[in-house]
Amino acid sequence: MTKQLRSRGGNMDPGHALASLGVEGAAAAAHALSLPAEAYGNDAQLEVLWAMKAFSHAEVYFNLISSVDPKFLKLTKADDLIYTKFREEFPDLNIQILDPELLKSTEAKEKWRPFCNHFEGIVEDFNYGTLLRLDCQKDYTEENTIFATRIQFFAIEIARNREGYNDVVHGAGAETKQRQNQS
Q1: Where exactly are the transmembrane stretches of this chain (predicted)?
Q2: Which domains does the chain have, with CATH numbers?
C-alpha cells in the first residue's frame, strides 16, 4: 500500500517524514495535531501532517484486515452502537463499492451530519479526517480513496467487517503469507 500511494507522486512516507523532523520536531507535530482545528488557518505544513497521520492510519488498518479475520475485529468500544445506528440510518447504503456522492454531496452531508454528531463524546476524535477505500476489495490507491470523517470510516468498516465484505482482503493477505512461508 505504501508503495502504491507513493508511486502516485506523493512523498507520504510517514516514517521518513517524521524522522526528518527529529525528536523535538516530532513532539511539536504531535502537540500541534492535538489542538482544535479552530487554532489554525490554512497551514500547508499542518495539512501535510494530517495527511501523514491519515495515511499511517490507513496503512495500519489495511495490514490489520489483511492479517486478522475481519469478523473478529473490534475497532472501538462502541462497535455495536455504531453498527446498529449506521444500519438504522443507512440501511441500503452499498458499502462494497461506495459512491462518493453518497458521502460528499450537499444532501449526503445533511444526512450524515446528525449521524456523525451522535457520536461526539462517545467515539474519540469522531470528526477527524481519515482515508476510506471506495471499493473494499481493493487497496488504498489514489483512485480508490476518499477523505471521510473518522466516524464514517468506523461505521462503514465495521459494517464491511461484520457483513463479510472485507473477507476478500483478508483472504488475499492469508494467501500472500502462505506463499511467503512456502518460500
Answers
A1: none
A2: 2-179 (1.10.3560.10)
